[in-house]
Amino acid sequence: MAKEITLGFILIVVFVVSISQSRLVNGAPQVPCFFIFGDSLADSGNNNNLRSFAKANYQPYGIDFPIGLTGRFCNGRTTIDILAQLLGFENPVPSFAATSGPDILKGLNYASGSAGIRAETGFQLGARISLDQQLQNHQVTVSRIASTLGNNQSALQHLNKCLYSVGMGSNDYINNYFLPQFYDTSSIYNPEQYATLLIDQYSRQIKSLYKNGARKVALIGLGKIGCTPNAISTFGANGSACVNNMNSAVQLFNQKLLALVNQLNTNLTDARFIYVNSFGMASGDPAAAGFKVVNVGCCPVNNFGQCAAGQTPCQNRSEYVFWDGFHPTEALNKITATRTYTEFDPSDTYPLDISHLVQLSL
């Protein structure tokens, strides 16, 4: 069994390299535009000017990013950045906060560190752009696109061809449910009830995105939040590798999200929604993929689990799963992005991967 797992991860590394090399030389983007909604895993600088502790526009963040500091919660590229490259985009999708003019026709990144499905999520860290607010920002973009293209119908025809990535919910656990000193959700709802509550609200939010023209939508499942260095140092793993009750809670959310994907595809037949199994991709033997450190971040962290300003990070960053207390390194993001674009295992995406989603004629 151990040999099978090791071989599987070696194959994944080869798979990542081959896919990346073949797609990065491709010509025009496979979709005309790419819109991103999410949290700090995708934030590309939207939090930079907010009064918030959830920001990453200081060193050593961006140490491996081509232009340095941008506000990404990573040493280099995020999963979204790498996906954009695999889709054929020459440049990363720009942040909503820093973009205007005709560039919006190619897509925007609305993601915001500490944001959640629920409006109150992340309030203890300061300002953030919740999913509802991100959707309002997108409404502004839709209006601008309509003005640029001349009318609403032309805007919708353009937006129908775009790819949409929505990855929310992690903070509704990390910065809400599992912080009883700030939030009462865990005393009101058991994990099953809370997951249902989140998915019900999420469903309404995703349907509003559909009403604004979204027809090809990737819904990103939650990862193993109980395996982050911050979770382990804060709660203790009690002899396990991870904080099991946190992982169990997000698994309930993921099961309901998968069911929602089926429901959306049944009811909205002119659109296609896919589920990205982030939790499943995190399974296996990281050592076989070249990772040597799995439970400690590469950079020294502050009280919020983010990199401490001005501190020197590890030199062997490709050997670390985590960059800080929460966020993966670019090395792990490469694997996640590649498996999202072209599934390595049948369970990676459902019912199809992004490379096939973008090819659909709807």
Automatic annotation (TrEMBL):
The keyword Hydrolase applies. Residues 1-27 form the signal peptide. The keyword Lipid metabolism applies. CDD domains: SGNH_plant_lipase_like. InterPro entries: GDSL, GDSL_esterase/lipase, SGNH_hydro_sf, SGNH_plant_lipase-like. Pfam families: Lipase_GDSL (PF00657). Keywords: Hydrolase, Lipid degradation, Lipid metabolism, Secreted, Signal. Belongs to the 'GDSL' lipolytic enzyme family. This is GDSL esterase/lipase. It comes from Prunus yedoensis var. nudiflora. The lineage of its organism: Eukaryota, Viridiplantae, Streptophyta, Embryophyta, Tracheophyta.
